[in-house]
Amino acid sequence: MFFLTPVLVAVVCILIVWIFKNADRSIERRNGEPRARAEAQPWVDEDLRDSSELQQLEEDADECQESEENVEHIPFSHTRYPEKEMVKRSQEFYELLSKRRSVRFISNEEVPMEVIDNVIKAAGTAPSGAHTEPWTFVVVKDPDMKHKIREIIEEEEEINYMKRMGHRWVTDLKKLRTNWIKEYLDTAPVLILIFKQIYGFAANGKRKVHYYNEISVSISCGILLAALQNAGLVTVTTTPLNCGPRLRVLLHRPTNEKLLVLLPVGYPSKEAMVPDLKRKPLDQIMVTV
Fold it and tell me: pTM value?
C-alpha cells in the first residue's frame, strides 16, 4: 500500500492545480465582461466618459488644490407665492415647455446676441458638484467655422449611421427622418457647443477636481433648453458621436474639456416640420410613495 502513496499525492496535487487554474480563468472572464460589453457597443463615445473619480485618485496629495473652507454664508432670499399663484405659474410653465420640440429646420435669420447671453447666463445657474461649475459654452457665429464644424460632424456621422450605431438604433431613428446630413449646422445663426470640464485649475495653478461633472453639465443643458424655449427660439439636441476631439482642437479648447452637447439655435424656418410625437402621461412618469 505504501508504494501508492506518492502516486496519490501526485494526483491530489494535479487536482489542486487544475482547480486553481480554472478559478483564475473564471475571474479573468468576469473581469473581462465589462470590456466585452463596451466593445459590443461601438457607439459608446469614449471622449464623453466621466473621469472625476479617476482624476481624484491619480492626484497626489501634495498636488491637490486647497479647499475653500471659509465661504461666507448669507441669509436666503425667497419669494413665496399664494397657493393659487403657485398652481397658475407651474401650469403656465408646463404649457410653455410642452410646446418645446426638436427642430431641424432652422432659419438663417439673425437672433439678438443679448438673448444668447441671457440664456447662457441662465444655464450657468445650474447646481454643480461642490460648486465647481464645470461647463464651457462655446458660441459659434462665424459662417466659415460653422461649415468646418458641419464637415467634421457629417464625416463622422456617416460612419456612425453606416457602422457604429448599429441596425437597431438606425431603425429607431427612421420615424424622425434624420440622417448624417446636418444642413442646420450651416443655416442656424448660432451654434452653442457645451463642453464639460473633467477638471479645472485652482488659483495656484494646481488641478481642481470637478465632481460629477457630466451630471452637472447635463442639468445645465436642461436649463438652457428651457431658457431657449422661454425666449422663443428653437434647437435640436445633438450629441456628435466621435466628433469631440476634432471639434475641441478646431475650437482651440484645452484638453480638460470634452464636448457633451451641440445646439444649433435660431428661429424655425417657414417650412419647418416635426414628427407628431406624444409624451407619456403623468401616471407613467411619476410614482408617489
Answer: 0.77
